[in-house]
Amino acid sequence: MQAQTRQADRTAAQAAGTMVTRCWSCRGPVAEGAPFCPTCAAVQPPGQADHFARLGLPRGFGVDAADLDRRYFALQRQLHPDRFATRSAHERALSQQQATALNDAYETLKDPLRRADCLLKLSGQDVVAEGCNLVNDPELLMEAMERREALAEAGSTVEVDAITRATRADVAACVGGLAAAFSAGDLAAAGRLTTRLKYLQKLVDETRVRKLQLRG
Ligand SMILES: [Zn+2]
After folding, report:
1. Do 99 and 151 lie in a common domain?
2. 148 C-alpha vs ligand 1 centroid, how far in Å?
3. Ligand 1 centroid vs 69 CA: distance in angstroms?
């Protein structure tokens, strides 16, 4: 009978797209990654939930920053160490693991590049190291090389500022392109834009270094 109930739980959860596990304390059903048992309120191990599930968000590139913050801070408050000061060592350890997994999910989803990387991984697209992706895309590689050259040749901070502005505008356009590619389900385009975003963001960092060199 219990096995049947468990099977029914699992089937329902799978239909909803979430996995169900058992609470370590009361054995009641708990959605994978949920911080607390809905039956006995005991803190749960972080489990295998992806970053989106952990924050109760649907998988997608479009994430509202204010909504993400709200969800994150609400969960973070519930997992605050002060709340577990009088609990068992096991519960304190679990709450810390949950807090770590929550921070990781938040930092990943907050950043467009990390969010895109995460979505591609969840879609089964393995994202290779930046260099390899660039080499596989001659057009993108050429663009990256030309921009690095322009930065190296910039002779004043004014010139560097112009490159920084142009690169930031390209970053914004790239993020817009990613939103369109993901919502259209075009993973090949999303992968290419993710690679482009990686080098563009790196280039923005390099403009800072170049500016310091020119000032020095
Ligand atoms: Zn429980």
Report:
1. no
2. 56
3. 27
Q: What distance in Å separates the CA atoms of residue 51 and residue 85, rounded to the nearest whole number?
A: 27
**Two tokens, residue 153:** 């040749």
Cα of 37 vs centre of ligand 1, distance in Å, is 5
Q: What is the pTM for the complete model shown?
A: 0.82
* Cα–Cα distance for residue pair 50/102, rounded to 1 Å: 10
Among 62, 83, 110, which residue terminates a domain? 110
pLDDT in tens, 112-121: 999 999 999 9
- The domain tally of the chain equals 2
Q: 14-21: long-range contacts (C-beta < 8 A, 24 or more apart)?
A: 18/49, 18/53, 19/47, 19/48, 19/49, 21/47
The string of pLDDT tens digits covering residues 158-195 is 999 999 999 999 999 999 999 999 999 999 999 999 99
Give phi and psi for 30, each to the nearest 5: -135, 135
Distance 36 CA to ligand 1 centre (A): 8
